[in-house]
Amino acid sequence: MPTASSQGETRVDTSVPSIARVYDALCGGKDHFAVDRQVMHRLVQVTPEAKRVVRANRDWLIRVCRYLAGTAGITQFLDAGSGLPTAENTHEAVQRVSPTAEVVYLDNDPAVLAYGRALLENNRHTRLAKADLTRPDEVLAAPEVTAALDLSAPVALLQCGTLHHVEPYDTAQAVLQDYIAALAPGSYVALTHMHNPRDGSQAAEIASGFESTFQNTLGTARYRTRNEIAALMDGLELVEPGLVSLHEWWPDGPPPAEQHPVMYTLLGALGRKPADEHAAKRS
Q1: Do residues 108 and 137 touch, judged by C-beta distance below 8 A?
Q2: Rounded alpha-carbon distances, angstroms, from residue 198 to 56, 101, 186, 224
């Protein structure tokens, strides 16, 4: 059973920063280069707490995976724009709860593909597909996806830290809505998205600084409002507590009484596709 895409040789351009490698640097990983660290340092100049929100995104993903594989009973996972692995990967969090759960990672970043193929070589329940997450029809028809996942049954789609890199907003919204339409009832969508409250707060200032840095160095990333992020999940029933800052979603323990404003620059939600397509709109 192959565990990785066989579509040609993967080349990594070390002269151009990569969003996946910048995230790796922020997480304290080892799979990045000097050009990626330069971007990281510019983000840290905006606020020294920049690394905290990236770590929070990974911690949130692990908690969501445990919920999906355990409480929700999901056995099929599609991790879109999976990025480079850090301390714990989606398949590790999922398969610790459900050892035979199928996990398909999706990415088109050369560094992710190169690392992922080696990482997953000996895991027969985990695969890596090379595809563009902004093309749902192509993603869902990819051989790695169709070989591992039964799309007529519930699937967990993970879009964590992805759609804020899709512009314009209407395109990002259409992409996720196309996935939702294609998923079977009972499927779940997990989303994290960069957030700017645009209220004059310190969090808003940090979000604006981050967005400027990302745009000037990588040409990508939009910090959107809560209403814009919520609308991406139209048609889904949100699991409580809904769309919130990541530390507020089923924390492993009591969070600190006060959070640094940077923690409010990323929101997350988990939504379930109802059997009745009109149910979510009525709720």
Answers
A1: no
A2: 21, 40, 34, 9
Question: Which run of H or E residues covers position 79?
Answer: strand 76-80
* Domain spanning 52-198+225-282, CATH class: alpha beta
Q: What is the reported pTM?
A: 0.89
Give the three-class secondary structure for 249: coil
Looking at residue 1, its pLDDT comes to 28
Which amino acid makes up residue 254? P
Beta bridge partners of 104: 78, 127
Which residue stretches of the chain are H helix?
19-26, 34-46, 50-69, 90-97, 110-119, 136-141, 143-148, 169-182, 202-218, 226-232, 279-282
Sequence-separated (6 or more) residues with CB below 8 Å from residue 149: 76, 78, 102, 104, 155
Q: At what angle do helices 19-26 and 202-218 cross, to 10 degrees?
A: 130
Q: What digits encode the pLDDT tens for the residues 63-76?
A: 999 999 999 999 99
